[in-house]
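Might I ask for a little of your time on a matter of protein folding? Here, with my thanks, is the record as I have it:
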Amino acid sequence: MTSELKREELLLLFDVDGTLTMPRTSVTQEFEDFFYGKVKPRATVGIVGGSDLEKMFEQLNGKKILKEFDFVFPENGLVQIEKGEEVGKQDIIGHLGEPTLQKFLNFVLRYLSELELPIKRGTFIEFRNGMMNICPIGRQCSRAERNMFAAYDDEHQIRKKMISVLKNEFHDVDLTYSIGGQISFDVFPKGWDKTYCLRHIEKYHSFKEIHFFGDKTEAGGNDHEIFNDPRTIGHKVATPDDTVRILTEILKL
């Protein structure tokens, strides 16, 4: 049925890292030619990422995404951009309140100060509109250091262990945790995962089918909730090549 739908009836939503690009790298010209030349004319397209808008710009060749994509949803869709214009935004600081926020931040900083890793760099907590991003190694690491930590984390489960401690310590606070990318994890109020973008879509639009493409679809991954949501048809990918293959199949390109 998908290939028979009109463009305005079919919405394709995409994660960025591992889906449109390899992790923390830029989209290739070959992928852009395929996507903008063959996919965009056939379906309404949107991106929903855990990162902020600036990081989306970095990976997808700049601000042109604001006109190339019908929907741009940074920060799990807590910032809503449609046809290049911001139309909505949520705020985690106002939601949690300063006392709870400071208690959480103090605990995180204390935990990180006692955590021993092969290396540490700078910027361990990054504030975004609708979430906090926590990075045990520090976001100022190089690409080689990023890859090293990813392998170390696979073996030692640094992020999963830290999340377990935070869940126990702040069990009474309205927070959930999601691992995405290679070096960090996101913290946000319950329900503020990537399914948040569907609230905006359902409120203002009516699509016959919504497909989602992402790589972190396992429990605890930041694509898990939207991938398994009954409102979407989920497609698990590992690389942009997987995305191309599945799009070619379902759109009969």
Q: What stands out?
A: The first strand starts at residue 10 and ends at 14.
